[in-house]
Amino acid sequence: MDPQDAVDLGREALLIAALLLGVSVIVGWLRSRYGTQGLLAGSALAALADAHAPIAAALGLHAQGAVAAREALLAVLVAAGVNSASRSVVAFASGGAAYGTRVAATLAASWAAAALGLWAGDAGAQFGLPGDLVERVQPAEPPQVQRHHGIELAADGIQAAASAGVTAIIQ
Question: Strand, helix or coil at 51?
Answer without folding.
Answer: coil
